[in-house]
Every structure is written in structure tokens, then in C-alpha cells.
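Entry:
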Amino acid sequence: MKKLSIYVICLIMNEVKITTQDNIKIAINYYENNFESVVILAPGWFMTKDSKSFRQMSEIFCRYSDVITMDFRGHGHSGGLYTFTSKEVNDLSAVIDFAKGKYKKIYVMGFSLGGAVALIAGAENNSITKIIAISAPSCFEKIENKVWKKEAWIPTLQKCELKRWFSVRPSIIPEKKVRPIDIVERIKCPTLFLAGEKDPTVENWHTKALFTKAVCDKKFELFENCCHAEDLFIQNREKFVTVCCDWLFG
């Protein structure tokens, strides 16, 4: 990873509320340290900006860039109900709009369904400088979600945060969803695709298929013996941070 001349741990964070075009309040943790770039961390289903792993990631990446970590609708301190990628692009778009007037470079890191949303936004929004999609599904209907496998339930138990679990509010109304595999060719910004070798929730063929179909500047990285989304960071932190920082700042 390229050494940066500025290496400051950002300890100041403010929670800010942003309103989407469909009038949902989205809560963000804003780590502002006067960089010219910002990394937007977009968690997946059942994860929030205040989850331990996302707090830790935020504090690491704010050494190199300002950081915004968001709660999608129906999660944490945000309003509304979670629609499993049907409307969440409105949430990410609102955060990008918040960042546009402040930063020269906007990086988006999306995890699982947050990765799907990042790709959908990337196909629509030219303001994104680079994307990292981690364990993103090619389409919602083909998500495996083998919750009975140890690779699924052991990491889930290890990440148990009852306050977070009680904060999640899903919608039960089926709504039309954009399939990332159908729009990935429209992404123009450089995109890094990351997957876990032992992912039981979104098997790594999803990420390989998205990578293969993408026509932008792209890279694929498989994390051996790792599972799903933020588990790549939890299970192999050094590699995860190095790979992401090389892609964004190298």
C-alpha cells in the first residue's frame, strides 16, 4: 500500500440526519478531518453504522480520508422500513448529494445488499469516483442465505449486538428490485469486487459474475477462508484494509 503523507486518527465524529427524495431521514456518522476525499461505508441487511465492525472500519479509514458511515432506512437511527434494495438507492444518493459539495473524490464501499445498492448507484450517479463492492449479490432472488451452515451462524453469533438487532425494521411488502447483474455494465467508475471463499449467504459466484460482466476499470479479489461482507474485515483485517486502501488511495 502506498504510504500517505498524512496519517491522522480521526476521533471526532458527529451524527447527522439527511433527508431522501422520498422524505426518509437517514442517519450518518460523519468523521470529518479536512481531507479532499470521503469514503462512504454502506452496510448490508441487519448491520448499522454503529455496529462494532463498522465503527472500527470508520476509525481506520479516516486515517486516509474523511468517512461517512450510514444507516439505511429501517436500520439504527434512520427512519422508514428496509426494502431489500428496492428503495435504498435513494438513501445512498442522499448521502452522495450531501458529500458532493464538500469533496473532490467520493468513494463508496458497499457490503452485501449495501454492495448491491452501491452498484446500482454507480450505474446512475456519475459523482462516484470509485466503488468497492463486498459480497454483493448478482440479484436478490438468487441469494443463497444458508443460515444453518456454521459459516453463517457462527459469525452471526460472534457479531451479536442486541441493541442493533432490535433497531431493524423490515418492510413486508414485496417491491420491484433492480438486479445488479443487469446494470453493472453501465458503471463507468473503477470498481473493486471482493468476495469470501466460504460465503454461505452470497456465494462468491455472484461477485465473479458481476466482475466478469463489468466493463469499467475493475479488479476481483477472493478472500480465502473468509465468509460474508464485513466478515472479510473481521477475519482478515490486514489484507482487507491493505486491498481497499491500495484500490482507493494507491
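Residues 1-8 have pLDDT under 50 and may be disordered.
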